[in-house]
Known about the structure:
The complex is a heterodimer.
Chain A: H1 3-12, H2 15-52, E1 57-60, E2 71-72, H3 75-80, E3 85-97, E4 103-109, E5 120-124, E6 134-138, H4 139-145, E7 152-155, E8 158-167, H5 171-174, E9 176-180, H6 181-187, E10 193-194, E11 196-201, H7 207-220, E12 225-228, H8 231-234, H9 237-271, H10 273-281, H11 286-321, H12 335-361
Parallel strand pairs in A: 4-9, 6-8
Antiparallel strand pairs in A: 1-11, 1-12, 2-10, 3-4, 3-11, 5-8, 6-9, 7-8
Chain B: H1 2-20, H2 24-35, E1 38-49, E2 55-66, E3 70-79, E4 87-93, E5 96-103, E6 107-111, H3 127-131, E7 139-148, E8 151-160, E9 163-170, E10 175-182, E11 188-199, E12 205-214, E13 219-230, H4 241-244
Antiparallel strand pairs in B: 1-2, 1-13, 2-3, 3-4, 4-5, 5-6, 7-8, 8-9, 9-10, 10-11, 11-12, 12-13
Amino acid sequence: MTFFTVIVRGLMRRPVRTGLTLVGISIGIAAVVALVGISRGFEQSWSKGMKARGTDIVVSNMGNALAPKPFNSSLRDSIVSLPKIAATCGLFVDLTSIESSSMTIVSAREWGGFAWQSLNLVSGRLPKDAMEPVVVLGQNAAEVLKKKLGDPIQIEAKELTVVGIVDGGALVENGSVILSLPLYQKISSNEGKINIIDIRATPGLNEEDIKKLCAEINVLIPEARAMPAGDNVGNSQAYKFISAMSWGTSLLAVIVGVLGVMNTMLMTVFERKQEICILLAIGWRRARIIRMVLLESALLGLLGGIGGVMIGSIGVKVLERMPAIHGLLEPDLSPRLMAISVAISVIVGVISGLYPAWRSSRLKPSLAMQG
Amino acid sequence: MKSFLSLITLAVLGLPASAQEPDAKALAAQLAGLQQDGSSFARVKMDGKTAEGAKFTLQLQIKQRRTAKSTELLYQVLWPKERAGEAVLLKQSGGEMSGTVFIPPDKFQTLTAGQMKEALFGSSLSYADVLENFFTWNSQNIVGTEVLNKVSCQVLESRSGSAAVRSWIDMKRLVPMRVEKYLPAGTAVRRIETRFVTNDDTNRNIPAKLAIQDLQKGTSTDLEGSKLKHGVTYDNRDFTAEGLKNINPPG
């Protein structure tokens, strides 16, 4: 009988209890995978959207809201003159309810700006001029809004026509209703206002140069904040809140897991008191007993972690397909997140086993005689 | 010694309780003040279900001017196309309510006092529901505390004559999580539940999703806000019969 066999036998002694403990850990880890995966996916999809538009720096005022606050479009002119800036593009990005659907991203782009260049037409065409009363829809937006080419679409009080379906290369782009900035400014009575400036830096700048450029822009326009593309959503209050909520909920689930494993391991130690005492009597060292208990709880954590990753991934995939949020989620179910989740689970297992291991190491071999 | 300890215990337990005892009138005044927030513009999706089970969805825009002295509300239908342009102008000043309904292309109907209890665009809300600010009524009392959806709320009862309204107030965020209106006989006639709270453009907590039930007719309506902009500029004409026809949002 090997050391590992002893460990497995210890867990298999009470299969129902071990199974229930595994379910408990799995649910905790599934919560970590699902919640953290969704919130990180949200940030990454915005980041991908920025990259798809060829944006290096984003100037906006995110505040607490999900959509940035508007500012005067003339602010863009003060940035253009800065060195190391290749191009700028003003946008008005809004989250609004369209027709019978809930919140949809409306992305109004400066006519002729570089943000149009990353859109690949799947069908139809792009607007012919800045004031043509038309929109193009990202693929997901078309699906969610149930629109096809030629369909009318009402934005605010204005009825526009869908003339194109586009692939923007990122979930955010594909979930957007895209139209020209002057048209949207007129429809929404936001003439002269934008809420995002996308900036392309001159080629060859590294991360440090981009940060320096952001600092220069921030001095020029205190009304908004320039950040490297992708960082702006991650730094918004709304995202930080969502992220904190995800980690907070996950932490609670993990604490429940710790208590479950600790309870199981304590019960195991109490029930196997005689066995442990005999092992001590036949020459096992106390360190080996500690290692045995810790490995048992770590194995519980490992199996629970693997189960949790599977449950979490399946759960997120099911969520993604739900009609209410279809096309709005792009969870980050990366191998890194899964590895972190399993590692958390194993650590949880080891931490949970510390006290039971310490208790078992204090048993005296003579107790084996007491039956 | 034992009685001394009891005294200290009573003092410790008693003092914070009296210090935290909310003043109903002050609370109502605070909530009334939050409603009287000047000129604003809102976009709302209304999903309704009639007593017969028929479902409908409307996209609305709301232009409003709320002050301590008067309230002016203009509700306009933006979508669906066949109802676009329908509008209701509601006013309250010195306790008097008035209203005008506009059906395109040119039908105007003045609402009588009796008609103020009729449904707003066929929803579970009446014209009076959206107009009156019961937090300004004279009689305000805290009648209890209750936990609603894990949120601890103070129950504020507002009375004016035979009319009574109870509001479950989340004291941390100062948001009504539930409002119930009662008939003089004490029967609940309307229930409004807050389903989601968010921050508005002034960083204030506001209900962003509401579920309304007309407990007599058996109808229900969900309201989901998608935009709220404060400090907008309105012309006095926006709140006249002429303004009813103007569906452009304010600048």
